[in-house]
Write a structure and sequence with these properties.
heterodimer, A: 690 residues, alpha+beta, Methylamine Dehydrogenase, Chain H, five-stranded antiparallel beta sheet, 31 strands, 24% strand, elongated, B: 602 residues, alpha/beta, four-stranded parallel beta sheet, three-stranded antiparallel beta sheet, 24 helices, 9 strands, 7% strand, flat, BRCT_dom (chain B)
Chain lengths: 690, 602
């Protein structure tokens, strides 16, 4: 590069043979000239190419031309500077000096404007563009409007070589000579054809008898040694090329696809890292409603579409079917990108687990039960109704022989009915709501225990033969004045009084009595006051069932029902099984030999279970509830301890109606027949027979 | 050991050790979230659901093995390299070292995904199983415009187009298309490749709606993987039918945007090559015997050249027919394929300008039909005599050739789904076509059969019955299946009517006999008697009505009783099933109700 520079240094002054003297300054300008030419040429190039365009389009590009005038002007001026700088060497240094302020060429007139090199913006709003050489203002020419100038340009064939000189506010027409110059410059050759760039160099300086160098400065070192940095750069490139870091040929496009799955036999099923691959579930396939032309019934009506707006956003249907008359009227789907994106998100963001999908018939879930026909007899239909009570019948009790039933009602009466006929035999007016009635389980002593309010009454029903009556009378009479015999209760809790009105005994308690129950043998009975148990019974329950041994007087077992509140309890005649009804409608069967957990929990009633009952002889048990139904179950207990009890639901008995939110209040089995008595809150007692 | 009792340095156990949250995984792998996301997408790693979420419920958990799997992935290192390299380029640009930056940019490190594909899909069948999403995505991007701002380049769009066409050409060529469905979202296709049902969705060929709530980075990562996967799958499929991949297409047809047709021609040319080659071999063998060794090689190459040129005639109309013929030779395909192959046999279709050309060009040849379209490069012109159907989608048709039927595009899709040639009357130009039903729905299982589905079913049954090759029937009769179909329907309806009449007659007869009996018994047949009879019958019906709810009660009781003895788990399951059933029934009821209303309105 240094050498090239030097050659240029030499070349430039070559033509100027006739120069007598040349200072270094002029030399340096001469050196700069070709560079200037080079730097200017793109501008000129642009203008010319546009000129060519306009030539072709016959003046269509007038606007562009107008806009680029400035470039052209400066380019032109400089160009002529250079060109003539070369040419006018003959004319002497004076001409060279003139280059700065004005054009020195002989065919170029001096600019009429004399404002100098000031921004033309200053004169934008003025009437004049500047001053002429005599100091007079030069008025601005009238502006042609664009359309006129365009039309003029369209007509004028020479329009493409016309330029607007803003400085002088005049149109300049390039001569043929000038255009030729520009063309040559564009090609990269010297502007004048007559210049020979390759003329032999003739040294114009006479070196022979010069005693002193032109410059006194010592020759710098860099003139003599090759550049170190250039060398380094070259070495770097060479190395890079050798290593293959720089490649000149483009890499060949190779097909990157090949037979990936050549033979499947060698591949293993296992994933690379030992975890099972869970394939993503496939998107749901389109149904009829997604069709562009669905059947009419798939299109929701306007009301339905409006109603979607009232739904929660999650519940709203994602897609509202529409119908298009023809395929050409189907528009692009709005959510195509969104849905695709959602799918992408699902694929890489959703946790995946394997869910077993159960594809079974729901009926197969039902357990196989023995046929109900084989388990007959059991109560099926209502055959008798005992009407007479004015209020809800709260309790019903069957006499041991099965001839009579007693019922206690909300209206404060206790009635005794004949089972077969439904005839009401006796009525006692107690005066308070009767919570509980219970027959003495001994057939010879038809005594009725009635709990009402704070009292428990023992009533002599007057049934049975003479002997028994005498015996009962005795019992009732004798026991009445004496103090309570066996329990260690303080008399403050219970006081035994002979009832004044009816034939019986009153046990006055300090609190209201909710329940009364006889012992199996009929010798004892127990009463329950909420929060205070007066007399030990076999079973006590609220949340758990506690089993007490009466003889030893201690807790034997605790049965955990796992229900909220126990409402009723019944014991299997054999004694080892207990059913417990709860207020949440669950019926628990306990096998006491098995565990303290229920053997089976039956969720049969939607409402509270009010009572449960076992049949004495038949393998039947029943539950009744506030939802006005009573369930009858078959429950066989096998003597083989290894065999679990068989429980089969047999029948749902309906018939009662809801009164004051209560349904069936009590149910009792007939002691010998498979009959069921239910006492309803609708003041009716029903008998269901087989 | 509970967490808070664990001494420091003691190893974790259970879910705490097995699963790791996403942010921890990122920290562990020492990468950024976008790179992690990219790796997960490419490697097919997904979060898993631990039994116990140790770190909290609202976090994403990855299995530690999955994360280790990512950690040992060479791609991870590659991504780091690329990042470092990008920094180099950035630096060069910042230092205005233009040529260094350019040079670096020409040699960016690249990566290939073939190993990943092999790893994720060890068997070809696995890849086919997972192809649905990739096909849908590639087809979607084939219809998208290139978006500079989202870095969706023209090159990728073109690649997607190419891949989708290659896939369609294969499916069409092997006649493995099974179902089609025009939905509002686009056109669904279902193909059967190597026993795998592959369903994909192509958008309607329109300017797609661009939304800004989509992260294109994620989508483009998916697309990158899908493109590679589909290319490899295409390679394997093309290899299986002895066609070279990637196909070399006629640039003229490609320029006319008839890529699919160009592919068909490529197929037909390629499929004939093996036969030609064997011929050439024998020929050259004989030549060798005759002329000796000198110059045979040059002769051979010349021969090949000539043959190849012969194979690509300028614009052969019967290319598609050849295709069909060639395919017909293969006997190893199954019953269904054979049925599909011959559905449109001997039919010639012409597509008007306004119908979706790409879809129909794909579907019709897949079912053995010959097809052409309006425009340059088409195999045959509109004036061709052999055209049996012209597919038009405009309100009226100006010039009509009497020799052909002018049907709407839906006819093709319905025929394909029903696998019979449906009568074209309903689909003629200017009419509102019958409802287009989804072939993916099992109507019986859904519980509601649309009316048109039943019609199609009847037609199918008729076609099956009548089209059995009977020895006595003339061949000409067989050629016109439509006639037979119509006849079949007519005969069927007639039979139905006759049966009904017979039933009525029987009833009348019975009544007559009864009356006769009464008269014989001496009872005067009077109005009162008639009244009595009426009354009795009314009573009977009333009794029935009374007993009916009772019966319902009984069944309900039975149901509730069996529910009582079920275990809690089973009962819950049963109830859930009932809810599902109930919902289904409700939907069906809505449909029925709407149908009833529309019928009442008409």
């Amino acid at each position: 590069m240094v050498e090239a520079n030097e050659s240029r240094l030499v070349k430039a002054p070559k033509e100027k043979k006739n120069k007598k003297k040349k200072n270094t300054m002029s030399q340096s300008t001469a050196v700069e000239e070709p560079q200037q030419l080079e730097t200017n040429s793109p501008l000129v190039d642009k203008v010319l190419s546009e000129n060519d365009d306009t030539e072709r389009e016959s003046g269509a590009g007038e606007h562009e031309l107008l806009e680029d005038e400035e470039f052209v002007r400066t380019g032109n001026v400089e160009l002529s500077n250079e060109v003539h700088g070369l040419e006018d060497q003959d004319e002497g240094v004076e001409a060279h000096q003139g280059v700065e302020e004005s054009d020195s060429s002989e065919d170029e007139v001096a600019p009429r404007n004399t404002i100098g090199d000031v921004p033309l913006k200053w004169y934008e709003d003025e009437e004049h563009i500047g001053y002429d050489i005599t100091g007079k203002k030069i008025k601005k020419q009238a502006r042609k409007d664009k359309l006129d100038s365009f039309l003029a340009g369209a007509d004028d064939a020479k329009n493409w070589r016309k330029l607007y000189d803003e400085y002088n506010d005049e149109e300049v027409e390039l001569t043929k000579h000038e255009t030729r110059l520009i063309r040559r410059l564009l090609k990269g050759s010297t502007p004048h054809a007559e210049v020979d760039p390759y003329a032999p160099s003739v040294d114009w300086f006479e070196w022979d008898d010069a005693k002193h160098p032109l410059s006194n400065a010592p020759e710098p070192k860099r003139r003599f040694i090759p550049s170190k940095w250039e060398n380094k750069k070259v070495v770097e490139y060479v190395r890079a090329i050798r290593k293959g870091l720089i490649k000149f040929d483009k890499p060949k496009e190779e097909s990157q696809f090949y037979l990936l799955w050549g033979d499947d036999s060698s591949s293993t099923d296992k994933a690379a890292h030992g975890l099972s691959y869970i394939p993503a579930p496939k998107p749901k396939l389109a149904g009829h409603e997604e069709s562009y032309n669905p059947s009419k019934e798939y299109i929701p009506t306007q009301e339905e579409i409006n109603s979607y707006q009232l739904m929660y956003e999650e519940d709203r249907p994602k897609f509202i079917p529409r119908r298009f008359e023809s395929l050409r009227s189907v528009p692009a789907y709005d959510n195509a990108l969104k849905e695709s994106f959602d799918r992408c998100l699902d694929l890489y963001l959703c946790p995946r687990t394997r869910k077993k999908r159960i594809n079974i018939d729901p009926e197969s879930l039902k357990p196989k039960l023995p046929s109900r026909k084989d388990l007959k007899p059991y109560p099926i239909t209502c055959c008798l109704e005992y009407r007479g009570h004015k209020g809800a019948v709260l309790s019903v009790s069957v006499e041991v022989t099965g001839q009579w039933i007693a019922s206690g009602s909300n209206d404060g009466t206790v009635r005794v009915w004949e089972v077969e006929t439904g005839r009401c035999l006796k009525i006692w007016e107690i005066g308070e709501a009767v919570h509980r009635v219970a027959w003495n389980p001994v057939a010879e002593l038809p005594i009725l225990a009635v709990s009402a309010g704070q009292d428990v009454l023992l009533l002599n029903t007057g049934f049975g033969n003479e002997e028994n009556q005498v015996k009962i009378k005795e019992l009732m009479h004798i026991e009445a004045p004496t103090a309570p015999d066996d329990s260690g209760n303080s008399p403050s809790i219970v006081s035994w009084v002979q009832h004044d009105k009816h034939d019986g005994i009153t046990l006055k308690h300090i609190k209201s009595v909710s329940s009364v129950e006889w012992h199996r043998k009929g010798d004892y009975f127990s009463t329950v006051m909420p929060g205070d148990i007066l007399f030990t019974s076999d079973f006590i329950a609220l949340k758990n069932v506690r089993v007490y041994d009466l003889v030893k007087q201690k807790l034997v077992k605790k049965l955990e029902a796992g229900v909220r509140e126990i409402s009723s309890i019944a014991i299997h005649p054999a004694g080892d099984n207990v059913i417990v009804g709860s207020t949440e409608g669950k019926l628990c069967w306990f096998d006491m030999d098995l565990s303290s957990q229920p053997y089976r929990i039956l969720k049969c009633h939607p409402k509270d279970i009010t009572n449960v009952a076992f049949h004495r002889s038949y393998p039947l048990f029943a539950s009744c509830s506030d939802d006005c139904t009573a369930y009858v179950f078959h429950g066989t207990v096998y003597s083989d301890l290894n065999q679990n009890p068989l429980i089969v639901p047999l029948e749902i008995l309906r018939g009662h109606t809801i009164t004051n939110g209560r349904g069936v209040m009590d149910c009792k089995f007939h002691p010998r027949q498979p009959w069921l008595f239910t006492a309803g809150a609708d003041s009716v007692i029903k008998l269901y027979c087989h | 050991m509970p967490k808070h009792y664990r001494p420091p340095g003691k190893k974790k156990e259970g879910n705490a050790a097995k699963y790791i949250t996403r942010s921890k995984a990122i920290k562990y792998l020492q990468i950024t979230l976008p790179v992690f996301r990219r790796l997960c997408i490419l490697k097919g790693v997904f979060p898993r659901e631990p039994k116990k979420k140790v770190e909290g419920n609202h976090k994403t958990y990855y299995h530690l093995k999955d994360i280790m799997f990512l950690m040992h992935e060479p791609l991870l290192e590659k991504f780091r390299d690329i990042r470092a390299y990008d920094k180099k380029v950035k630096k060069a640009v910042a230092k205005k070292n233009r040529d260094l930056a350019d040079r670096l940019l020409t040699r960016k490190p690249t990566y290939t995904l073939d190993i990943l594909i092999r790893e994720r899909y060890p068997k070809f069948i696995d890849a086919l199983r997972d192809l649905d999403d990739s096909l849908t995505m590639v087809h979607l991007f084939a219809a998208l415009p290139s978006i500079e701002r989202e870095r969706i380049q023209v090159k990728r769009i073109h690649n997607c187009r190419r891949l989708s066409h290659e896939w369609q050409a294969y499916i069409s060529r092997t006649h493995s298309l099974r179902k089609t469905f025009i939905s509002v979202k686009g056109i669904y296709y279902q193909a059967d490749v190597e026993g795998q049902k592959i369903t994909w969705l192509t958008p309607h060929a329109l300017q797609q709606v661009l939304t800004d709530d989509v992260d294109f980075n994620v989508m483009l990562t998916f697309l990158e993987f899908y493109e590679t996967l589909l290319a490899f799958v295409n390679f394997k499929l093309y290899h299986s039918i002895n066609v070279k991949y990637p196909p070399v297409l006629d640039p003229r047809l490609e320029a006319l945007a008839a890529d699919l047709y160009a592919l068909y021609r490529y197929f037909s040319a390629n499929s004939r090559v093996p036969a030609m080659e064997s011929q050439a071999a024998s020929l050259s063998g004989s030549e060798q015997a005759e002329t000796g060794k000198g110059g045979t090689q040059t002769d051979e190459t010349e021969l090949r050249l000539a043959q190849l040129q012969h194979q690509l005639p300028a614009n052969e109309p019967g290319t598609l027919m050849h295709l069909v013929d060639a395919a017909a030779r293969e006997d190893d395909d199954n019953e269904e394929t054979r049925e599909c192959k011959t559905l449109f046999k001997n039919l010639k279709f012409f597509l008007s300008r306004e119908v979706p050309r790409e879809s129909l060009l794909f579907v019709i040849p897949a079912f053995g039909g010959a097809v052409s379209w309006e425009g340059d490069g088409a195999p045959f012109k509109e004036a061709d005599d052999g055209i049996t159907h012209q597919i038009v989608d405009r309100p009226t048709q100006g010039h009509i050739f009497l020799s052909r039927e002018y049907v709407q595009p839906q006819w093709i899709y319905d025929c394909v789904n029903a696998r019979i040639i449906l009568p074209a009357d309903d689909y003629l130009v200017g009419r509102v076509p019958p409802p287009h039903l989804s072939p993916f729905v099992d109507n019986e299982a859904e519980g509601y059969v649309p009316e048109y589905a039943e019609t199609i079913k009847r037609l199918q049954a008729a076609a099956r019955k009548e089209l059995l090759p009977m020895p006595g029937v003339d061949k000409q009769d067989l050629d016109d299946p439509q006639n037979l179909l119509v006849e079949g329907i007519i005969s069927r309806t007639e039979a139905n009517e006759a049966a009904e009449k017979k039933l009525k007659m029987l009833v009348h007869e019975k009544r007559f006999h009864d009356e006769l009996k009464m008269e014989q018994e001496g009872v005067q047949y009077s109005a009162s008697v008639a009244n009595k009879i009426m009354q009795s019958s009314v009573e009977v019906t009333e009794a029935r009505e009374v007993s009916l709810p009772d019966f319902a009660q009984v069944t309900e009781d039975a149901a509730s009783m069996s529910k009582v003895v079920m275990s809690r788990k089973k009962r819950r399951l049963y109830e859930a099933m009932q809810i599902g059933k109930e919902r289904k029934r409700a939907n069906v009821n809505i449909l029925k109700e709407r149908k009833r209303k529309t019928e009442a309105a008409n």
